[in-house]
Design a protein that fits this description.
It is a single chain. By secondary structure, the chain is of the alpha/beta class. Helices cover 46% and strands 18% of the residues.
Length: 423
């Protein structure tokens, strides 16, 4: 399928991709120009330079970003990533996706995202802590339980959130656990949070197959990425009777037509550092694994893995986007023409932010739930959100991704209209 030069640019730039999908949904909603401008532009973009004393006594300056895309429906919500390739366009796109994601599952947050340009694997724990604390101090006036609530993302974790929470608490002179989510349980974290995104993906796969009239027992699944999201989704789906026939990672893929033993595969990776040469499977090319015939394809690793040059080769019935932005806009039309049932990222991987919302609520109440209640409420929200998106798609004769964006834009626009424009 031929693509325009703009489409090719969109495939490599997440902010342009986010803008293209926004414009498509806004057109179908007939949003006026003024509302488009309000919804499209980030409310606030913060760039900070972070001087840090390294272990060898040298001073290095790192660049950090925090973008608050929208706070119309509640505090900003979104992760902080540490990576050498963080860009302001990437952070803008991720912040806007968080706005739409929170609106799709109808939780009272807006969208935000943050990042620091660094190479975590080359930094000591002490250097990472100093970067985190100084970054927090630089943006602290924009953070808070009712302003902006960060969470872990790429190369950050519950320890990073503990440092942020402590830094913020020291500045405001009282312990404020609700300033971040994804914290350790002993510091106000929530039961069920680490597995929430993967669990949400599993719930979406079940609902999609039910919608298509396909039995989950023996349904073949291909997973790209065996990290927190893909690994947890794989384990949960295998326990439900799905057959995980292939798993792809950055260094290769493994395949077994009768289904992989996910627990054994994870143990093999822990012992060897790779999924390759696993006794219960045969090795295969990591790209080719995506094109295996299956009922469910779950890309749960990086952006832009499904694009205009390979989308025609997919042989799945359902695409569950566990990662953010795994499919480029030019690939959307190809998937639509192939009749693939797509559960877009702003719905499929919303389990994480949903349980982050539960954590924020528990912190503010000072009353904590057991894991059964967390999982029950997560399933209720994910299932009702799936039903709302599918119903919206049927009503407006659009694909699921367009429906999810239309529903999200509609909800945020409605909140802004109710509030009015302050002047």
């Amino acid at each position: 399928m031929a693509t325009t030069l703009l489409s090719l640019a969109q495939e490599t730039n997440p902010w342009l991709a986010a803008a293209a999908r926004f414009d498509n949904a806004a057109d179908k909603l007939n949003l006026d120009d003024g509302m488009r401008k309000v919804l499209k532009a980030p409310a606030r973009e913060i760039t900070v330079n972070i001087p840090v004393m390294l272990d060898d006594g040298r001073i290095e300056v790192f660049t950090g970003y925090r973008v608050q895309h929208s706070i119309a429906r509640g505090p900003g919500k979104g992760g902080i990533r540490f990576a050498p390739d963080v860009t302001i366009d990437e952070v803008r796109a991720l912040a806007s996706w968080m706005t739409w994601k929170c609106a799709v599952v109808n939780i009272p947050f807006g969208g935000a995202k943050g990042g620091v340009i660094c190479q975590p694997n080359l930094l000591s724990d002490g250097e990472l802590e100093r970067i985190t604390r100084r970054y927090t101090a630089e943006i602290i006036e924009f953070l808070g339980p009712e302003r902006d609530v960060p969470a872990p993302d790429v190369n950050t974790n519950e320890r990073t959130m503990a440092w942020i929470m402590d830094t913020y608490s020291m500045h405001v002179r009282h312990t404020t656990t609700a300033v971040v989510t994804g914290k350790p349980l002993d510091l106000g974290g929530s039961q069920g949070r680490p597995e929430a995104t993967g669990r949400g993906c599993m719930i979406m796969a079940v609902q999609a197959l039910k919608k298509l009239g396909i039995d989950t027992a023996g349904a073949r699944v291909v997973v790209q990425g065996l990290g927190n999201v893909g690994g947890m989704a794989s384990k949960l789906m295998a326990n439900m009777g799905f057959k995980i026939i292939a798993v792809a990672e950055y260094d290769g893929a493994v395949f077994n037509k009768d289904g992989l033993d996910i627990a054994a595969l994870m143990e093999h990776r822990r012992e060897t550092g790779s999924i390759r040469e696993f006794a219960g499977a045969q090795d295969m090319d990591r790209q080719e694994a995506l094109f295996l015939e299956c009922e469910v394809l779950l890309p749960a690793a990086t952006e832009n893995v499904i694009h205009s040059e390979n989308a025609h080769r997919l042989r799945c019935k359902v695409l569950v986007e566990g990662a953010n932005g795994p499919t480029t806009p030019p690939a959307d039309e190809i998937l639509r023409e192939k009749g693939i049932f797509v559960i877009p990222d702003i719905l499929a991987n919303a389990g994480g932010v949903t349980v982050s919302y539960f954590e924020w609520v528990q912190d503010r109440q000072g009353f904590f739930w057991n894991v059964e209640l967390v999982n029950q409420r997560l399933e209720e929200i994910m299932v009702s959100s799936f039903d709302a998106v599918v119903a919206y798609a049927d009503k407006h004769s659009v694909d699921n991704r367009t429906a999810a964006y239309m529903l999200a834009l509609d909800r945020v626009a409605f909140a802004i209209k109710l509030r009015g424009i302050y002047a």
